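Our preliminary data section would be incomplete without showing what the modeling component actually yields. Below, a chain of 158 amino acids is followed by its predicted structure, encoded as tokens that our downstream tools consume directly.
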Amino acid sequence: MKTLIIYASKYGCTADCAINLKSRLNSDVTVLDIKNISKNTNCSDYDTIIIGSSVYVGKIAKPLRGFCENNKDTLMKKRIGIFLCCALPEDVIKVLNENFPSALLKHASTTKAFGSEARLDKMSFVDKMIIKAFTKGDFSKFKVSSERIDDFAKEITS
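Predicted structure:
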């Protein structure tokens, strides 16, 4: 079974989660940043496609939204999993519904929020100000859940 994990990561948390997820899957796994996708990347070559994105202000990365729209027909023929890295896991259903085609969501074998990390050292000044205002300086919500990654891996392979 060949698996493609395609992700969009702004500050690296989603990239790290994609690599972490790869280590938990017992198959031939390719991990690819959406920035590095080429016209030669053929989704038809894979049995399973996992899509992962960071979430900022309720939105996933625009190139990843475009990828899902442009490859919807192929994706609908594959086993699909979607994961998000976001600070508010309680908003995950809303984020999924507003950012992915509804048919793709219904077709997905699993969807999960893995949590997030506040990587302030990598953030732009504006993003730092937004996150500090949003959290009031309390970054305790910002944790990646190993359990959710484990659950996702089990669900996508079952």
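The chain has one domain: 2-157. The two ends are 12 Å apart (CA to CA). Preliminary results of this kind motivate Aim 1 of the renewal.
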